[in-house]
């Protein structure tokens, strides 16, 4: 079972970026934990972060070629305006979970809108970096259930 973890713009700054909103964990803490969590559940997880919309689109296309079966994505600011990411995710028809560290609904009005949510298998927000854990666990369960 292959899972891809994607993180969008500015998430490379986690740990130092507005820690009152995003916490103190770094992206590499999250990625390292995700890899070991997936492997302990019998899945294989790869990860990618980019500040560039096109690079994320390319990585999503590559996911289909690589046989990725589920994507966990924190699209960051692209959530709120990227038609290209939406089209890439629906284009490869790989189920995905949208995750946000902060509760976007408790923030600025324009963060309430997502171009991805209605196409996502599920959306997690406001649970901090625990959201990544929950999303990965769901993906593994979902892929196992599909197998049977
Ligand atoms: C975010 C929320 C977005 O609104 C913001 O642009 C981000 C991070 C989150 O994880 O809470 O960069 O996706």
UniProtKB/TrEMBL annotation:
Q: Which residues does this entry assign to the site Transition state stabilizer?
A: 17
Q: Provide the alphabetized UniProt keywords.
A: Lyase, Quinate metabolism
Q: Which domain of life is it from?
A: Eukaryota
Q: Pfam families recorded for this chain?
A: DHquinase_II
Catalytic machinery residues: 22 (proton acceptor), 100 (proton donor)
One GO process term, biological-process aspect: 3,4-dihydroxybenzoate biosynthetic process
EC number annotated for this UniProt entry: 4.2.1.10
Say yes or no: keyword Lyase present: yes
- Kindly tell me the pathway this chain contributes to: Aromatic compound metabolism; 3,4-dihydroxybenzoate biosynthesis; 3,4-dihydroxybenzoate from 3-dehydroquinate: step 1/2
User: Which residues does the record give as substrate binding sites?
Assistant: 74, 80, 87, 101-102, 111
Q: Which GO terms describe its molecular function?
A: 3-dehydroquinate dehydratase activity
Job description of the protein: Is involved in the catabolism of quinate. Allows the utilization of quinate as carbon source via the beta-ketoadipate pathway.
What is the protein's name according to its record?
Catabolic 3-dehydroquinase
User: Which species is this UniProt entry from?
Assistant: Hyphodiscus hymeniophilus
